Fold this protein.
Amino acid sequence: MEPLLKARNLSKIFGSGCQHCIAATGSEAETNVCPHCNSVVACNDVNFDLFPNEVLGIVGESGSGKSTLIKLTHFEWETTSGELNLHRSALPDGLGELLADTVDQYTRNLFALSQFQQRQIRNALMGIVYQNPYLGLRMNISSGGNIAERLLGAGWRHIGKMRERASELLEKTEIPISRMDEPPKNFSGGMQQRVQIAKALSNNPLLLLLDEVTTGLDLSVQARVLDLIRNIQSEFQLSMLVVSHDLGVINLLCNRTMVMKHGRVVESGLTDQILQDPQHRYSQLLVASQL
Amino acid sequence: MLSIENLNKTFNIQILNNIQVHGCSNVSFKVDSGQFFALAGSSGKGKSTVLKCIYRTYLPGSGHIWYDSANYGRIDLACAPERILLDIRSREMGYVSQFLNVIPRVSAIDLVMEPIIVRNGVSHANARERACNLLEKLHIPHELFNAYPATFSGGEQQRINIARAIGWKPRLLLLDEPTASLDAKSINQVLNLLSELRGQGTTMVGIFHDQEIMNKTASQTYTL
């Protein structure tokens, strides 16, 4: 089986950058700030394959570059360097030209596309759920409207059908349909997270990006959100990138896991191997720090 | 079906000033198809380490773990790509741990059904029937079928664990002290199920804390 998504040499540097940036940062140097030019190496030389129906975890402490990876993959930030290639079979209709002059089953580098093409790919294939629901939702627009907005982006035009789809999704994520005309700002944190998930699912994505989705929720609410994610993953056969600092969440959701520190992937492996036989010093520390 | 050559494993604990913890050393054995192969040896000799290396929960230090996969042919599990290992785990190789690693908020019956549905591709109804059958054979009371195992007794949890691991009839089953927390009656039920499974073609590699059970069950023994 071939990967759905291949990421190669992903790097993101904030600041002017200099020739020493890469050598002077990372887990050996124990910093991600270049001492020569003060640029921040948010991530460097990250490689991963994401297979169809696979859940890949990214774990690490704040500032390790986990969310940067998500933002690069979601085309929110421009990469400093790197390639992202999508498998032919996943390519939406009408974007066939992305395969022109390619030699294998993969698209050209998605990072080299125009913003318009990136948006098309994002609308057709990706869903994202942020830790902070204010990033993923318009708080003053009704929940149904939030979903309709995304459907409009994906080319839907019929109001009745969009409304139908919205209520179907909200039902799936356990939001009472009677409240679909209320804005998310009226909702609790857990409900807002579930509206975000409904919105992320609205275009039937192949790839779901989850950025610390349960962080900050209380335990029972966290449990319901995780249950929901597990259910939709198996129901829709989604590929997911899951960012979390919580090894429990990673253990529950992910088949394989990458451990990040100071913008570098320090270890990657099967999730149970990372948890029971961590190799890198930092992974060992992370596992030993678990409650 | 499984051939282990000079397997070594040492844990290097970097956060404790690089303490070296012994896992296992120079382990070599062969398991033929259809066997019930038992690993013996006193505590700390590395029996569980060997099982976990085969399953790749531990990264083998050196040596080879040759496995005749139904799908991939002869493959060294010590260095096979992670994707292939995950695939072999989900189609061919099962693992019964000492304790139930519960998935929170999933009922006993669903825990047992899930691998049957996903791995054998049978219908929901069919899987439910097989799972119920299995739980009944293990004498789990009916009222517990739809309850969360986190609240069960140790013995009940372990029986759920076994049911989940064997329900989908793996080709190779690794068992790490599956009967450790069970009473005499449950032990017999589990052993009967295991021999039934072996009769259907599953090869097994297991560790038993009880010498008598091991002698009764195993077709071949290797002492570490």
